């Protein structure tokens, strides 16, 4: 059986999540495996110095993640948006709005294939939902690129494992693709056809593209409450992550040496040790909510984010406890009041 894009993405997320989950199990006989996974994920202050510089890269290479993420997400967003406007325009047809409202409210039956108009409406909704999710991702990766350039001040000695570096590139390549995976093959075919037509027929024979801004934004007004609540959740996490990153970035301004550390305080740092990780989980939870929660592939993306960040936060929390005798005892690693 030929594997499609969705199946490959699901397999990739499962393959990335399972080792982390196994390494997180509280079993003594898994200690060596835990150490291997932890070694791959260590970076910055929690990576031991000098002896572990083999197979590492400077932590400032974090910016590479977001350069790739911005370029790739922007490409997917523009291609999907153009495809949606050209092939799935929202028209003022009474049956479309009633059927779309039924779909968003969960009252439509996806197995009613004889209702061709409803299927057409659902396909349009699916495509425009992908555009909406990519917009949320674009806002996130643009801010992260800005922060890596202007907010963070990485120590010259800060390193990360090459496997962690490759994992970051993998994540920011596959995550945007996951958000539009249900229509990505159609978008790719559309893009290839457009490029081929341009190369064969030339610019003069191409269909003129008329820009009407209302056609680009009007479909978003037809989205349901689920999408806008999800966007609000993303914004909530987005704001707090920026605040926490600003706090971390400012710590370098208040210490005498670049390799010195102080206890971060403010915002969500008052309750957890890694609030920027918590905010990241909130952001992707918002994306799951905005997607409607029916796409298993997006759930698997979220599962990877949670497993990876909880695992990393636990190690960061242990480092803080070992580094500072006066570390606040009421702080937990990442999930407030739990762990």
From TrEMBL:
Q: Which residues form a coiled coil?
A: none
Domain 3-oxo-5-alpha-steroid 4-dehydrogenase C-terminal: start-end pairs: 209-338
- Where in the cell is the protein located? Endomembrane system
Pathway of this protein? Protein modification; protein glycosylation
Keyword Calcium listed:
no
PROSITE patterns with a match to the protein in the record: S5A_REDUCTASE
Transmembrane: present as a keyword of the record? yes
Membrane topology summary: Multi-pass membrane protein
One Gene Ontology cellular component annotation? endoplasmic reticulum
The record's listing under InterPro entries reads: 3-oxo-5_a-steroid_4-DH_C, Dfg10/SRD5A3
User: Would you say which domain of life the source belongs to?
Assistant: Eukaryota
Listed GO MF terms? 3-oxo-5-alpha-steroid 4-dehydrogenase activity
Q: Which GO terms describe its biological process?
A: dolichol-linked oligosaccharide biosynthetic process; polyprenol catabolic process
Keywords, comma-separated and alphabetical: Membrane, Transmembrane, Transmembrane helix
Q: Which ranges does the record mark as transmembrane? A: 12-40, 61-83, 125-142, 162-184, 296-314
- Name of this protein: 3-oxo-5-alpha-steroid 4-dehydrogenase C-terminal domain-containing protein
UniProt lineage: Eukaryota, Viridiplantae, Streptophyta, Embryophyta, Tracheophyta
């Amino acid at each position: 059986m030929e594997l499609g894009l969705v199946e490959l993405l699901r397999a990739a997320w499962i393959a990335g999540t399972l080792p982390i989950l196994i390494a997180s199990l509280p079993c003594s006989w898994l200690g060596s495996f835990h150490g291997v996974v932890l070694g791959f994920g260590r970076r910055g202050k929690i990576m031991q110095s000098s002896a572990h510089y083999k197979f590492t890269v400077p932590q400032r290479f974090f910016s590479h993640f977001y350069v790739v993420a911005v370029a790739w997400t922007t490409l997917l967003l523009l291609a999907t948006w153009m495809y949606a406007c050209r092939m799935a325009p929202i028209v003022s047809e009474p049956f479309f709005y009633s059927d779309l409202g039924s779909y968003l409210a969960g009252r439509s039956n996806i197995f009613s294939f004889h209702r061709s108009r409803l299927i057409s409406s659902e396909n349009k909704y699916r495509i425009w939902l992908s555009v909406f999710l990519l917009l949320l991702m674009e806002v996130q990766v643009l801010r992260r690129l800005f922060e890596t350039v202007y907010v963070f001040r990485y120590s010259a000695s800060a390193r990360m494992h090459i496997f962690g570096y490759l994992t970051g590139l993998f994540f920011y390549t596959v995550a945007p693709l996951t958000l539009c995976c249900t229509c990505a093959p159609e978008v790719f075919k559309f893009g290839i056809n457009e490029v081929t037509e341009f190369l064969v027929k030339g610019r003069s024979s191409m269909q003129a593209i008329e820009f009407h801004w209302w056609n680009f934004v009007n479909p978003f007004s037809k989205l349901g409450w689920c999408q806008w609540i999800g966007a609000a959740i993303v914004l909530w996490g987005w704001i707090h992550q920026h605040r926490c990153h600003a706090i971390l970035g400012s710590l370098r301004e208040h210490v005498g040496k670049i390799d010195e550390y102080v206890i971060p305080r403010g915002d969500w740092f008052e309750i957890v040790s890694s609030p920027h990780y918590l905010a990241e989980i909130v952001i992707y939870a918002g994306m799951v909510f905005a997607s409607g929660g029916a796409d298993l592939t997006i759930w698997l993306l979220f599962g990877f984010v949670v497993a990876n960040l909880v695992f990393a936060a636990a190690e960061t929390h242990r480092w803080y406890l070992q580094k500072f005798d006066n570390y606040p005892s009421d702080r937990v690693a990442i999930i407030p009041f739990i762990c």
